[in-house]
Request: fold
Amino acid sequence: MTAALRVEGLHKAFGRHEVLRGIDLDVADHEVVCLIGASGSGKSTLLRCVNRLEPIQAGRIFLHGEEITRPRDVNVVRRRIGIVFQSFNLFPHMSVLRNVTLAPRDALGLSRREADERALALLDRFGLADKRDEFPDRLSGGQQQRVAIVRALAMQPELMLFDEVTSALDPELVAEVLEVIRELAAGGMTMLLATHEMSFAREVASTVCFLDAGRILEQGPPEQIFTEPREERTQRFLQRVLEAGRL
Amino acid sequence: MAVALLSTVVFFAIVVVVVTHAPGWPEVRRSFFSGHEFASTFPEIARAFVLNVEIFCIAEAIILAVALFLAVLRALPGPVFFPIRALVIVYTDVFRGLPTILVIAMLGFGAPGLGLSWVPTSVTFWGIVALVLIYSAYVSEVYRAGIESVHPSQEAAARSLGLTRWQAMRRVILPQAVRRVIPPLLNDFIGLQKDSALVGTIGAIEAFNQSQIDANATFNFTAYLAAATLFVAITIPLARFTDWLMLRDRRRRQAGALV
Reply:
């Protein structure tokens, strides 16, 4: 069976600074892959490259067997891949409902009624139905991030990317966002997450990849990575995380 | 509050005393502040002022559209669009650099002088064209500042959902950009209202030109005061409205930051 996402030999540099130096990665359908690693190890950049938000220097990316690195139209690719950012990036001049229906209507050509129905079903599923007419400024960070997830889901993507989606949240708001991701995992959504929430990664991931200086240094099932990491750098990283009380 | 009131009263009392005790005051009062002249010239000047209103309203409507178009052109990314961006930059540089009165004179006297039958000869028409050329350059810079003030993450979010560059601009960036620049846009509109008087220099009988005709006929400058009153009567309320909008905007943003 072809992988939902396949990344081959991906290289990315900002000017002379090499951020990704040959990433190879497979994500199977319904799999949840967590990227862990220190800040600057390339986790976020990898996600942005997969969504074609960043031009790449070398390598190929396939979505369900179809190469997306040299497509006719990047917009078609992005409609098939959802991404959620650390800083929510909701559109502040639109209501929650409009935030969610904008892309389905403008990019997919859904009618207003179809888009509203789809959006309301998702908002309802994640406990946000009563917020449909609110503006983003009036919501808590956790609610905003859940709306951002719903906004991406409304495009019915084949793959969801999460870029440290709880890093900008107050500690007491993290749980509600993780709960949404947990539910998506249970529902079989294919996901690639960059995260600092180690215990969550351990719980939800089918595969954990440790990134170091632009390479995947080690990957495997969470139990192996977290309890008996092979690489010394992985051990040191997890040791630091442990000392910081994040595991 | 009381201190402000007192110091204002004292200040203006001093100004009034100094001015009215100046040796030339009786002569100035007769030629600039004649109640009789004011009453007799005001209606005609007010009628002429209708032309000013027409000029700045028509010009403003065109300027808002043209300037937005220019700002969007200038925001086009990538090397392919460099010639377009360069053209817009040259345009804004040139027309912000030229004195308004010079452009009005060149077009007002020059364009009809070409003698082409399909070229309009109305000086009002060419006055409006000149104002549009000048003010579109200014206003496009205002729009550009607004567009650049929208954080790049907003465009990234829009594009990540599969919206095209143009959809992201129209739905996400421009609505936020325009909202932020409404106060400076109104500011430029006030400038335009005053500059509509410059169209009088090429022969349009607007309020300033009419007051000049009256002053020359009566050897009394009170007519200028009548014209000045009319301009101030519309620019000052708009200026206050602009200040109020800015204040409200600032309060809103501060309130938003606390959430």
The CA atoms of residues 7 and 19 of chain B lie 18 Å apart. The radius of gyration of chain B is 23 Å. Chain B has a mean pLDDT of 91.
